[in-house]
């Protein structure tokens, strides 16, 4: 049987992720985690690596979330929770952690001097936005802040739990079972799903496009209230093509098992799903029965008026690749509020008083589950909807959930202590110290903290020299370089210029067009390449080209460099994708070698999927091959190699619009950017960006393989306004040991 998490609710088609996020991600991460069939191959040495996709809402990572990653990097999953916004695989193979902090710099610095930060953009595949810093950025990311005490938090959690009892009085007329079936007993045919219901709940049906190769059971006789019932349950494994059948059990009325077969999948198995199916490699190795064999057996066993009973039966029929017209689904028969479904294990205990799917067993027993669904259908027919409603299943389920929550509260103190642990305490628990290199003038709570080896220097140059010596001696290091932040007038000027520059880069100049051209058709044509913000028709011109200004001189160079950005390299942009694009992509994943992830952006207001997406591949060559395929006659999509990273979209939207001066009012303009930069006492920021990118590159190359490295530009905060920060991270040499792709 499928995992209970999926069986208890509507499960999408195979390959689809169930969790909703602002950017819907379908990657090979789950398949990679599932493991690979490496028969005949020598196991490779594991290396720590980061996930391709950051699961950050709006691409912003909070300081607390960053702290969670650093703690997990130190201790691993056995001691602290996994970070919620990214995945760190094989944490125990990390050799050390190094955090470079460029105090005084922000995301605005990075994209204003993008060409100068060459090393950062070419090496680090993972970039994310940071919120403007508090008064002590380092204390935040290390976890040195006051939190709610354990006792107070435990009490507040206990008080927040509502009371529930299975003896709550109810109005039977409001029970969803009564509302659907009435209070009187019903016949067998009343419990069957209608064709419309089968369509709604994605049962395989004759003539549907995704069921072309499905085999009908040939049960086309007329059914009555005396038609025979058969309980059905299937177990699946995960193969290179998705979920495939590994076991089928069929139970007749009276509880006799008439069919119990192991099935050898047609494709390579990547995960036996043993914890749910009970199937292992050893069990399945000698099996020769194939899917077509059990299809033939099932057709021979079932009489023409047979009714199949199961729990989330659509999944079983899809695993069998068979179509059957007469079904009772116990997950839908025992109707629950708000479209939710009761788990089979819960119904077995609440209705029949029997325990199934026990935790001390290896996986589920398909015969037991098939027999249970049959007994549940028989109980419903024997006692009727009113008896079921009087059991108050909703209250029973809530009571069970709250009881489980109460059990968890007994461990609350330990959990809260883990959440409140700082990085310093994590290091102390394994007998290590944190190295902190900074300038003498910089003040942070970290420098005076216990278990922190602080080295104070007089300049950034001295910090750099000390880092070359000290970093190899510590498992966890923070190296802070300090720069003078932009003055308010320069910040405003640079924001304005960045807005103009990116607007110009995002503008397409096309033509010439005649005065009689069809604007609607023209807009439709451009819209097929992606969303359009605005469109202007200029009739009085003879040349069509981007205006050449100081801001647009390096646009072509910048576009080329954006395409080579480590986060963009290997990523393609596609426009014109439909809602079924993901399913089609997964069905034909063998065409897309090296595919790591599919990024499907959503409209932040409506929640609907946009008509464009990004495909992320392991290599530039794989991306190019995929681009040729999707632009071909079979897919007919428009696309190109990606230019912008995901966090950049959100940041550009947040830049202030160009200010408009009221007519007739003379405004004294702020100093130009060039003049303002020359007024700064320290290095010109453009030169500083180039110089310190090179210096950090030297430090990075001195690190050993398997070092987790983070570059943090914290952002700035003042009475004049705030600038968001930027984070970049990677594990040295992780690209050399990526897990094989599901489509390879």
TrEMBL record:
Entry keywords, A to Z: Exonuclease, Hydrolase, Nuclease, RNA-binding
Domain of life: Eukaryota
Coiled-coil stretches noted in the UniProt entry, renumbered to this chain: none
Gene3D superfamilies, sorted: 3.30.70.330, Ribonuclease H-like superfamily/Ribonuclease H
PROSITE patterns: RRM
SUPFAM superfamilies, per the entry: Ribonuclease H-like, RNA-binding domain, RBD
InterPro entries: Nucleotide-bd_a/b_plait_sf, RBD_domain_sf, REX1-like_exo, REXO1/3/4-like, Ribonucl_H, RNaseH-like_sf, RNaseH_sf, RRM_dom
Gene Ontology molecular function: exonuclease activity; RNA binding
GO cellular component annotations of the record: nucleus
UniProt protein name: RNA exonuclease 5 isoform X2
Organism: Camelus bactrianus (Bactrian camel)
Gene name linked to the record: REXO5
């Amino acid at each position: 049987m499928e995992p209970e998490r999926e069986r208890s609710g509507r499960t999408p088609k195979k390959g689809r992720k169930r969790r909703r996020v602002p950017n819907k991600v379908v990657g090979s991460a789950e398949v990679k985690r599932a493991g690979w069939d490496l028969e005949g191959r020598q196991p490779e040495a594991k290396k720590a690596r980061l996930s391709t996709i950051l699961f950050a809402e709006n691409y912003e990572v909070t300081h607390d979330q960053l702290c969670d990653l650093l703690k997990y990097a130190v201790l691993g999953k056995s001691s602290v929770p996994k970070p919620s916004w990214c995945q760190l695989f094989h944490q125990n193979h990390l050799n050390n952690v190094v955090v470079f902090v460029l105090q005084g710099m922000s995301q605005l610095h990075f994209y204003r001097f993008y060409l100068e930060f060459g090393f950062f953009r070419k090496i680090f595949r993972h970039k994310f936005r940071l919120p403007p810093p508090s008064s002590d950025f380092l204390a935040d990311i290390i976890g040195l802040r006051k939190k709610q005490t354990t006792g107070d938090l435990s009490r507040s959690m206990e008080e927040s739990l509502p009371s529930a009892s299975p003896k709550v009085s109810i109005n039977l007329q409001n029970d969803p079972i009564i509302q659907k079936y009435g209070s009187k007993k019903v016949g067998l045919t009343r419990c069957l799903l209608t064709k419309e219901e089968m369509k709604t709940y994605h049962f395989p049906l004759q003539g549907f496009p995704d069921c072309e190769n499905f085999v009908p059971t040939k049960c086309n006789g007329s059914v009555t209230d005396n038609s025979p019932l058969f309980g059905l349950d299937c177990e699946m494994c995960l193969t290179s093509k998705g979920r495939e059948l590994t076991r089928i059990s069929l139970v007749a009325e009276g509880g006799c098992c008439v069919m119990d077969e192991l099935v050898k999948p047609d494709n390579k198995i990547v995960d036996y799903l043993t914890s749910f199916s009970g199937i292992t490699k050893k069990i399945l190795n000698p099996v020769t029965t194939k899917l077509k064999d059990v299809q033939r057996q099932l057709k021979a066993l079932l009489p023409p008026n047979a009714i199949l009973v199961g729990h989330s039966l659509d999944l079983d029929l899809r695993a069998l690749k068979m179509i059957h017209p007469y079904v009772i689904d116990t997950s839908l028969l025992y109707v629950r509020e708000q479209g939710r479904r009761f788990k089979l294990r819960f119904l077995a205990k609440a209705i029949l008083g029997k325990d199934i799917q026990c935790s001390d067993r290896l996986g589920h027993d398909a015969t037991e589950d098939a027999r249970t669904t049959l007994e549940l259908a028989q109980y419903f027919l024997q006692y009727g909807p009113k008896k079921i409603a009087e059991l108050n299943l909703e209250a029973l389920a809530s009571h069970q959930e709250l009881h489980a929550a109460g059990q968890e509260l007994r461990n609350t103190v330990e959990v809260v202590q883990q959440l409140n642990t700082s990085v310093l305490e994590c290091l102390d628990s394994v007998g290590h110290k944190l190295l902190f290199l900074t300038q003498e003038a910089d003040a942070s709570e970290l420098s005076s903290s216990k278990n922190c080896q602080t080295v104070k220097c007089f300049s950034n140059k001295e910090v750099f020299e000390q880092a070359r010596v000290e970093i190899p001696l510590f498992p966890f290091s923070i190296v802070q370089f300090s720069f003078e932040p932009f003055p308010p007038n320069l910040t405003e000027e640079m924001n304005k210029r960045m807005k103009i520059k990116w607007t110009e880069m995002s503008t397409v100049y096309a033509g010439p067009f005649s005065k009689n051209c069809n604007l609607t058709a023209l807009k439709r044509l451009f819209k097929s390449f992606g969303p359009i913000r605005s469109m202007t028709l200029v009739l009085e011109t003879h040349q069509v080209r981007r205006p050449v200004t100081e801001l647009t001189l390096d646009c072509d160079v910048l576009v080329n460099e954006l395409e080579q950005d480590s986060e963009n390299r290997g990523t393609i942009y596609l426009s014109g994708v439909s809602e079924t694009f993901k399913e089609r992509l997964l069905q034909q994943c063998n065409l897309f070698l090296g595919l790591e992830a599919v990024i499907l952006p959503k409209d932040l207001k409506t929640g609907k999927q946009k008509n464009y997406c990004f495909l992320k591949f392991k290599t530039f060559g794989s991306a190019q091959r995929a681009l040729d395929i999707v632009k071909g006659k079979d897919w007919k999509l428009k696309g190109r190699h990606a230019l912008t990273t995901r966090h950049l979209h959100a940041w550009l939207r947040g830049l202030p619009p160009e200010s408009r001066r009221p007519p007739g009012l003379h405004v004294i303009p702020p100093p130009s950017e060039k003049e303002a930069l020359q007024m700064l006492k320290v290095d010109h920021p453009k030169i500083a960006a180039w110089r310190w990118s090179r210096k950090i590159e030297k430090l990075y190359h001195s690190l050993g393989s398997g070092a987790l490295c983070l570059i943090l530009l914290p952002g700035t905060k003042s009475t004049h306004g705030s600038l968001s920060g930027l984070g970049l991270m990677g594990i040295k040499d992780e690209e050399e040991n990526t897990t094989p792709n599901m489509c390879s």
